Every structure is written in C-alpha cells, then in structure tokens.
Amino acid sequence: MTSSIPHLSRSNLLLLSTTTHLKENRSSFLKIVSVAGGGGARRGFRGGIVAMAAQVQKSEEEWRAVLSPEQFRILRQKGTEYPGTGVYDKFYEEGVYTCAGCETPLYKSTAKFNSGCGWPAFFEGLPGAINRNADPDGMRVEITCAACGGHLGHVFKGEGFRTPTDERHCVNSISLKFTPAN
Prior knowledge:
By secondary structure, the chain is α+β, with helices and mostly antiparallel strands. Helix content is 17%, strand content 27%. It contains 3 helices and 11 strands; from the N terminus they run H-E-E-H-H-E-E-E-E-E-E-E-E-E. The protein has a 6-stranded antiparallel β-sheet. It has a 3-stranded antiparallel β-sheet with strand order 4-3-11, with helices on one face. A hairpin with a 5-residue loop joins strand 8 (141-145) and strand 9.
C-alpha cells in the first residue's frame, strides 16, 4: 500500500492503517483521502488528509452495550467530564485521536495544544470528521462526531491562542481513543 503512495507521513500512514482495520473489522466504512501534495505540516488542511465517514446508527440499547456508563452519558447524552480529570488533558504523544463510540479518526496529535482549560484542546479536526451545531441557548457551538453523532465537546473562536486557526476544540477525554503513531 505505501509503495504506491510514497509522500505519506507517518501520521497519514497511521490513518490509512486505521481505515484498513475499520474496513476489515467493523461494519462502518471510513475512507481517508490524501489531498494533493499531502503530508506537509502547513499545506492544505495542515496535514493533507480528509476524513470521510459513513453514518453509524445504533439504538440506545446498542450504544449502552458497547460504551461504559460514563461514555454513554457524555457521548450520547451530551454530558461533560470534570475539568482536569481526563486521561488526554496533558497527554502529548504522536498519533491519532478517534471517536470512542465508532473509532472514526477525528484529530491528529499535531493539532493538540495546551490551553490550560482542563480538557484536551485541538486547534482543528480532520476535515469532514466533526460537525458543529449551535447549542439551543446560542452561547456555545457543540462539536460532534460526523459519523455517529457522539458529543465531543465545544469549539471556541477568537480566544487569542497562538494557533493557526485561533480555535479551541475543547473535547472530553472520554469521547476519544488514542492510537499511537508507532
């Protein structure tokens, strides 16, 4: 697979590997597309990959069977974990963060930064992997997994962080799984 696509970075290869795993081991379909020239840290989508995921639909009973009670509360009932308690808050290994509900790749580790907010913070998700919806009160913008609709957290703009997008995706650790690059 890699010999025909020599320009892929280690992170992109990890995403392709994750895609192959999902195709072989899950009923959901995920496709990672390398954007022309991909792999460059500042090209295109700051990494050159686009995540496109088919919808994952399960009943409430099916979700309860595959998620822990706390994952269900946060992913399916739009809860929030306490600040500073999540495993990925101060975690900075190289790899990919996937949805804990459906394993769709959501964030590259290169987009993670220390915001000091008590939750993992990312300046951008993989294009096509995350949906944005205004909260009913209009005060915040919720982010959800584009494939399964699982609640991830909220996105904030214009806070002055020195990131390429001036956005902070404030994500519940329990909504994520991490796959190391090695």
